[in-house]
Here is the input.
Amino acid sequence: MQVLRSYGLFAAFAYIAARSYHSWGVCALYNRSSYWWTLGFSSRPEERGDTPLSIEGQLPDWLEVDLVRNGPALFTVGEDCVNHWFDGLAKLHKLAITGGAVFYRSRFIESRAYKNAMQSRRLASQEFGMLMAI
Here is the structure.
């Protein structure tokens, strides 16, 4: 795979992820989809099990690696929206290369803030960039 040889493993993962995310579509907050910065505030509420990803070319059979990262993925709960990127509810993302195939998986981190938000269907705690009414 040319990307893997030229730019390294991280670039290969980024390339695979970008091609996969492109087909899922993006729904930006505040109906401002024309602004490029709203892409960073796009909620991804679904969790995915081991989802096989299509690749171009072949990966070596000996390559077995997992890349796990976390970041904000849910910016709205009910009618509430966060005001800062740090306040999005966190999700783990995993890209796995095994046996010449690539798989993607995602799951929310079930923090206290996440559990409270899911139970009350609203943002129930004050976070980094939020002002809450008392």
